[in-house]
């Protein structure tokens, strides 16, 4: 064992020797850098920086030589100041007679940092130096040294208040006082504090800081000095005294402050009242009560707040009196103070008010019971719902919204049969909804198994930018215990900012849906938790509704709707066809106002079966609303609106639908809106909706946007709309081409000259000719054929304006050759269903299909659009994107028109008004 310890000691000693050697070598190398005339300034600065960490007395001579170097003096002092050797002080004192200007001020500062008492005589002489920067540095250095001799030198220099270094001398003296106080020289420190705080020409910050030092150092004996400062004409001195009083303990201080109150002007009284409240010493309560009695609005309000902070119980009755009969802000302050009073006596006073024969007292008691969170008031409040004074009844209901719990639900429900006032009844409905939700949550006792609730962030305090505390963990714990109503108050969260109105903000996620809410202090935030299945609470409410009569029956239906859930929704649906007109109307309005998309099927059913336009419009408005609330994927939401559209009749209905589509950022919504452009009564609104949707999806769906904007441009006549659509069209086309690595290289070129078939070649038996400036294709004997261009096209955009005489089977060939090619089909096909715009390829059949016959104008002109860029093939009809696919079978070929054979198509005719091509190239 001893041998092991010996070897360990040897190892440690050798290691320490090695470290010492390395350090000495490192210091030597660094000094060599400083001596090297060829070393750069940065190299020498870096050497000084490292020496500040490892230098010994051996570095002092080399560093001292740099003290008068304008470029290195600062870094040399930086390295010298930490060296624990007296030679540093000697070198710095010697430099006082050798360096000048900024370097001299720097050396003086270093002597102050090192608190070199032997430098005091020399520094005292420098107080009168002709350069202000030097004399000021000397004053501050003497202050840092802070011994008696330094203070004496500074006091001698203080005589001349016009000197350049006067402020610096004052600052130095204050530093000396602090140093003397810290090192036990209290008498000398007091003398310096006293001289400075009474020196009117000293900077005010030095005077106020010295006042603090003088008062605190004296303790209780400093109280007269404090009171004198409170009476000073200089407000800054008064404000400093008020702040200092917060640092002094003892009833004597409290009493002295209270005795001064009546002698002070109003503005200062308010400050001192705030101080007295914050001191927490209730011995001044009688004086504050006297001020409260005076009812001078601003001052009495400050006294009320102070008395509340001090929990001075005798103030309660006076605050209640003021709250009842005072006017304006003072009454509001009194109510606020009563609500926040921290003793049981305040709650007793509220209960007395509730029992008063005076309506005003009952009203105030009801208002305060919620602010005080006075649960014991609930039975009285329930009785007051039937108070003959409407204001008392309404105030009692507002309090019950906060205070009533599940145990009071039945009592609240029983009120409906006795309430006669409609306004009171509606407020009672709100209470029943609130209590009913609480009851359902309590009944569960925990989150339903199918609900995932996560508290992401919860904060309480001076929002948005002030001091707050994070209460996420606390709220999460409450939720896990089945508590879903969070009261925003200091009792629950603590008080991060006393005297400031706070807010409670929370971000949470329910079943993947993010929710962000903020409530003010005193309010309650309810977390809406989805319910599933039946619930005993709802069963009781349904029974109560069935047994009720008159307005009570309607009210309880509205309560069920407000609580929500599948069980409530089923009950509401069952009343849509009630023989009771009021019940039927209430059910309809409840359905329209439902809080989630579970009401969508019921609303659709009403839209299908409504016997009046008003009822259909109400249901449609409700559907649009719940679609907006829905978290389903956009295609499903669009599908709901599309189903409703089948039954719309008026322009008002269509405008509602447009508002619903317009808020859905999806190509399906854009397609639906574009299909409404032909309705003249809503054309402008449809165009605006199309543009709004297009702007939101152009980057992800440029082809769909491009087609839609072409339809807008070709339909509307308002130039501003056309300009917006045109800009979006260009943006979409550029994005689409960029996505597949292509760009345009030219302008549109006509393939048909409008006069004859020059440049075209016919194959087969179809008939092709020019008529009225249009290219016409037909067959009259059951045999078909093709008309093809002479040249071939590989990478291009093609647009064709056509109309058809039906029945017909025709199409536009592209990249055609040797029996192969692609065709923009113009047809009606049954198995599989395919309409014009379908992409056909011989041997492969349909590469994609149009299954919506309404996209083509059967009796009018239609625009076919084709883009062939490498293997990427895309087609539009009348601005609607039909499909896009990739097929590399045919890289290039002819463009042409087909007339299909078949007796069923005899007499068919395809008429081409315009056919244009534009080339594309790879980027």
Task: Please outline the helices and strands.
Blueprint: H1 2-35, H2 41-54, H3 60-64, H4 73-80, H5 86-95, H6 101-114, H7 120-126, H8 132-145, H9 148-157, H10 166-182, H11 186-197, H12 204-218, H13 223-230, H14 235-245, H15 251-260, H16 266-279, H17 285-294, H18 297-309, H19 315-325, H20 328-340, H21 344-354, H22 359-371, H23 378-384, H24 390-403, H25 409-415, H26 422-444, E1 453-461, E2 468-470, H27 472-480, E3 485-487, H28 490-493, E4 503-510, E5 513-520, E6 524-526, H29 536-547, H30 551-563, H31 566-574, H32 581-592, H33 600-609, H34 613-629, H35 634-645, H36 651-662, H37 667-674, H38 683-697, H39 702-715, H40 719-739, E7 742-744, E8 749-750, E9 760-764, E10 767-771, E11 774-778, E12 785-789, E13 796-805, E14 810-817, E15 820-826, E16 828-829, E17 834-841, E18 845-850, E19 862-869, E20 872-877, E21 880-886, E22 894-899, E23 909-922
Antiparallel strand pairs: 1-2, 1-4, 3-6, 4-5, 7-23, 8-23, 9-12, 10-11, 11-23, 12-22, 13-19, 13-23, 14-15, 14-22, 15-17, 16-17, 17-18, 19-20, 20-21
Describe, in plain words, how this protein is organized in 3D:
The chain is of the alpha+beta class and 923 residues long. The protein is 53% helix and 15% strand. Strands 7, 8, 10, 11, 13, 19, 20, 21 and 23 form a nine-stranded antiparallel beta sheet that branches.
Which whole number gives the mean pLDDT?
87
From the alpha carbons, calculate the radius of gyration and give it in angstroms.
Answer: 45 Å
Unreliable runs, pLDDT <50, ≥5 residues?
1-25
Helix content: 40-55%
Question: What overall form do the CA principal axes indicate?
Answer: flat
Tally of DSSP β-strands = 23
Major beta-sheet overview:
9 strands, antiparallel
Number of alpha- plus pi-helical segments: 40
Strand content: 15-25%
Protein structure class: alpha+beta
What is the first-to-last residue Cα distance?
81 Å
């Amino acid at each position: 064992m001893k041998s092991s310890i010996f070897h360990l000691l040897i190892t440690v000693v050798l290691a320490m020797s090695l470290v010492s050697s390395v350090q000495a070598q490192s210091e030597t190398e660094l000094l060599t850098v400083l001596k090297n005339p060829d070393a750069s300034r940065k190299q020498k600065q870096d050497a000084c920086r490292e020496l500040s960490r490892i230098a010994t007395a051996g570095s002092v001579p080399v560093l001292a030589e740099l003290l008068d170097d304008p470029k290195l003096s600062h870094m040399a002092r930086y390295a010298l100041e930490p060296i624990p050797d007296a030679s540093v002080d000697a070198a710095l004192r010697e430099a006082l007679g050798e360096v000048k200007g900024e370097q001299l001020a720097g050396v003086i500062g270093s002597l102050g940092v090192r608190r070199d008492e032997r430098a005091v005589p020399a520094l005292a002489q420098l107080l009168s130096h002709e350069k202000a920067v030097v004399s000021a540095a000397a004053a501050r250095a003497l202050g840092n040294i802070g011994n008696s001799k330094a203070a004496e030198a500074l006091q001698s220099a203080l005589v001349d208040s016009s000197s350049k270094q006067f402020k610096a001398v004052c600052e130095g003296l204050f530093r000396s006082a602090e140093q003397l106080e810290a090192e036990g020289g209290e008498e000398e420190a007091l003398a310096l504090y006293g001289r400075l705080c009474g020196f009117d020409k000293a900077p005010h910050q030095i005077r106020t800081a010295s006042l603090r030092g003088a008062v605190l150092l004296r303790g209780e004996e400093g109280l007269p000095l404090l009171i004198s400062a409170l009476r000073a004409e200089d407000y800054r001195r008064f404000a400093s005294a008020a702040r200092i009083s917060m640092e002094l303990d003892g009833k004597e201080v409290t009493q002295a402050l209270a005795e001064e109150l009546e002698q002070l002007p109003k503005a200062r009284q308010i400050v001192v009242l705030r101080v007295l409240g914050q001191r927490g010493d209730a011995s001044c309560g009688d004086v504050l009560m006297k001020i409260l009695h005076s009812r001078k609005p601003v001052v009495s309000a400050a006294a009320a707040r102070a008395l509340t902070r001090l929990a001075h119980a005798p103030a309660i009755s006076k605050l209640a009196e003021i709250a009842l009969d005072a006017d304006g802000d003072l009454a509001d302050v009194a109510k606020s103070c009563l609500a926040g009073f921290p003793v049981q006596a305040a709650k007793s006073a509220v209960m007395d008010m509730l029992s008063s024969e005076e309506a005003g007292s009952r009203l105030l008691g009801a208002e305060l019971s919620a602010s005080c969170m006075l649960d014991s008031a609930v039975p009285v409040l329930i009785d007051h719902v039937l108070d003959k004074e409407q204001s008392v009844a309404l105030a009692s209901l507002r309090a019950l919204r906060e205070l009533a719990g599940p145990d009071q639900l039945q009592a609240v429900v029983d009120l409906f049969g006795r309430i006669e006032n409609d306004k009171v009844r509606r407020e009672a409905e709100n209470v029943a909804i609130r209590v009913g939700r609480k009851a359902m949550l309590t009944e569960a006792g925990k989150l339903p198994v199918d609900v995932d609730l996560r508290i992401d962030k919860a904060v309480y305090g001076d929002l948005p930018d002030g001091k707050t505390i994070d209460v996420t963990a606390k709220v999460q714990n409450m939720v896990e215990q089945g508590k879903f109503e969070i009261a925003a108050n200091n009792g629950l969260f603590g008080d991060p900012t006393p005297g400031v109105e706070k807010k409670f903000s929370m971000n949470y996620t329910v079943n993947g849906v993010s929710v962000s809410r903020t409530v003010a202090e005193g309010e309650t935030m309810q977390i809406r938790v989805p319910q599933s299945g039946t619930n005993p609470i709802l069963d009781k409410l349904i029974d109560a509704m069935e047994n009720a009569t008159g307005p009570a029956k309607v009210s309880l239906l509205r309560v069920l709707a407000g609580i929500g859930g599948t069980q409530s929704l089923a009950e509401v649906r069952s009343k849509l066809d009630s023989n009771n007109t009021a019940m039927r109307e209430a059910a309809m309005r409840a359905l329209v106002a439902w809080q989630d998309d579970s009401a969508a099927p019921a609303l659709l059913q009403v839209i299908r079966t409504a016997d009046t336009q008003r009822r259909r419009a109400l249901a449609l408005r409700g559907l649009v609303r719940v679609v907006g609330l829905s978290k389903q994927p956009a295609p499903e939401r669009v599908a709901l609106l599309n189903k409703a559209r089948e039954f719309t009749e008026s322009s008002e209905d269509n405008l509602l639908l447009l508002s619903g589509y317009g808020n859905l950022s999806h190509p399906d919504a854009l397609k639906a809106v574009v299909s409404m452009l032909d309705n003249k009564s809503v054309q402008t609104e449809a165009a605006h909706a199309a543009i709004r949707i297009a702007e939101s999806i152009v980057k992800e769906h440029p082809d769909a946007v491009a087609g839609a904007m072409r339809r807008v441009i070709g339909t509307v006549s308002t130039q501003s709309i056309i300009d917006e659509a045109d800009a979006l069209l260009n943006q979409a086309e550029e994005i689409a081409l960029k996505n597949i690595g292509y760009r345009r290289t030219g302008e549109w070129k006509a393939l048909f000259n409008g006069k004859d078939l020059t440049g075209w070649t016919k194959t087969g038996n179809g008939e092709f000719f020019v008529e009225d400036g249009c290219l016409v294709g037909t067959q009259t004997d059951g045999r078909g054929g093709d008309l093809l261009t002479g040249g071939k096209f590989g990478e291009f955009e093609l647009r064709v304006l056509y109309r058809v005489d039906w029945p017909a089977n025709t199409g536009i060939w592209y990249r055609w050759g040797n029996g192969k090619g692609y065709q923009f089909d113009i047809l009606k096909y049954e198995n599989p269903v395919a309409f014009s715009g379908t992409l056909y390829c011989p041997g492969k059949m349909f590469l994609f299909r149009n299954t919506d016959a309404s996209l083509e104008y059967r009796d009018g002109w239609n625009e076919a659009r084709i883009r062939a860029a490498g293997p990427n093939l895309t087609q539009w009809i009348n601005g609607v994107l039909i499909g896009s696919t990739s097929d590399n079978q045919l890289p290039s070929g002819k463009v042409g028109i087909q007339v299909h054979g078949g007796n069923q198509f005899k007499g068919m005719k395809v008429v081409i008004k315009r056919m244009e091509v534009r080339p594309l190239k790879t980027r």
